Amino acid sequence: MTIKQIQLLSVPVADQDRAKDFYVDTLGFDLLADNSMGPDQRWVQVGPGGGQTSITLVTWFGTMPPGSLKGLVLETDDLDADFSALRSRGVPIPDGIQEQPWGRFVTFDDPDGNGIVLQATTTPGG
């Protein structure tokens, strides 16, 4: 096999405009595409600047109800600054910053209840 990366992850949402606003305006992702796929479907794709993997905000998978994705892990170089930015943008983070031997993280949900982990991984020996 010659798989070299994960290109795309589908995140199930109820309202693509609300989700797009959250991922672009709140998390700072780039809007990569927002195209019609027919009369009642859109392809809305977002991703972190310079990242190899992006996200499509989907409404059309019956087996993926909005809010059913848990454990989307995002990496940051500055957890403290990002935590403050998220809180100032109204994102509830009830548990605050948590510490583990491998690094630090916060958990929160997008507007549909999809679970997100924002982490700063500690390098071994560092």
Distance between the termini: 34 Å
Q: What's the Cα radius of gyration? A: 15 Å
Measured as a percent range, the helix fraction is 10-25%
The computed structural class is alpha/beta
Report strand %: 25-35%
Mean pLDDT: 94
Plain-language structure description:
It contains 2 helices and 8 strands. It has helices at 16-26, 79-88; strands spanning 8-12, 30-36, 42-47, 54-58, 72-75, 98-100, 103-109, 115-121. It has a 4-stranded mixed beta sheet with strand order 1-4-3-2, with helices on one face. Strand 2 and strand 3 form a beta hairpin. It is globular.
Write the layout of secondary structure elements.
Blueprint: E1 8-12, H1 16-26, E2 30-36, E3 42-47, E4 54-58, E5 72-75, H2 79-88, E6 98-100, E7 103-109, E8 115-121
Parallel strand pairs: 1-4, 5-8
Antiparallel strand pairs: 2-3, 3-4, 6-7, 7-8
List keywords for this structure.
126 residues, alpha/beta, 4-stranded mixed β-sheet, 2 helices, 35% strand, globular
